Amino acid sequence: MTTFTPLQRLVVSVAILASFVTFLDGTVVNVALPAISRELGGGIVTQQWVVDAYLITLSALILLAGSVSDAYGRVTVMRVGLIAFGAASVAVALAPDPLVLIIARAAQGAAGALLVPSSLALITATMRGEVQSRAIGVWTAFTTGAQLVGPLMGGLFVDLLSWRFVFLINVLPIAVNLILLARLRLPEHQRTARVDWWSGAVCALGLGALVFALIEQERLGWASPAIWIPGIAGILLLALFLLRQRRSAAPLMPLSLFRVRNFAWGNVSTLFVYAALSLNGFVIGVYLQQGPGLSATAAGLASLPITLLMILLSSRAGAWAGRLGPRLFMTAGPLVMAAGALLLLTVADRFDYWWQVLPAMIVLGLGLSLTVAPLTSAILGAIDENRSGIASALNNAVSRVAGLLVVALLSTIVGGALDLEGFHSAAWVTATLFAVGGLVSWLGIRRGPVQVDDPGVDGDAPADAGPRPR
Question: Cβ(317)–Cβ(134) under 8 Å?
């Protein structure tokens, strides 16, 4: 078993805590949504916006944050992100109405965008090979665990205190990580600070306009100018963003990275897998309260088996993928999760968690444990460490956009109401997305030395770096 040096252990701890708060706040909100809706009003549209306001800024600005991380230093960017995230969390907890809550959630997402690429970049910049694969496996186990234990923690706070306390959970890990950051001494490469701020603004506006159209179309209809104008504007802005990336001297999304096979195909797989995960997490957290009438705590406990399996198996899966290659794991894992999603079709009006939900959670947990660490390792291991910040940001942006879009389409997926029929529809869509993610991995992922089509991708790697898995 590969062991970490003291510096590597500190790096992994910092990376885990930095990402923990963003992953936690991305999912802890799911079980709080019914309570938020009861207190502040707004129904399913408000619930969608509470989730997507966070994801819009996180998705759009995470690319900008990756570029900023590479330009100004990962530790510095992470410290700013932690402080801003803590301040935004307090604002969310104090929100008096839906509008203020949504704005504060957007601020949270913007701060969170500074944390995830910086955290993974610390790992990929200081470790390579099997050590890196194991480190990413450990990071994945704890950060994905944060996503999955979030509903349980949120449920306890909602039932015992108030939904407002849900957003203060991250204060302690933020404080601890600021202390650890003060102890971390890493050599920062001298870089020219060239950040394309204009592209960041265009991307954020484009995503925001498109998501507005997707969410509000259920209420206003596609024929309304208030829907189709923002929808078309969003598409055009995103097209302008992609066009600018081809011409910018310092692109937020270097299209040349997608010439690396594992990076390109791995991100396509990420799109489908994380869309399925986001849809499943939202639907489970809300339906179990609004359908069978479980408490917020019980709804949070429903996904606990996934958390336990992730913590137990994810690190091992990362190490296995480092030795055997990621393709098998990235194919089998999503297919197993697809089977788990289909097991949710057994949920009926006469509800029984032990026979209708628990088997699905166990199967989903096994599949997720096999998938996430190999997926992350395959994508980031294909790119040179000098560009690890932007590569990490790109992959995280893809996963967040996937969740953003699928939540925006929730009303269409469930038929306007998250009743039993809508729950079953969501299960079918979730299973399909997982299966497509596995098929994409089988078709596209390879193992072997990096073969770079564009010298700008890995051309500055040291001559003795050796082959890296693709």
Answer: no
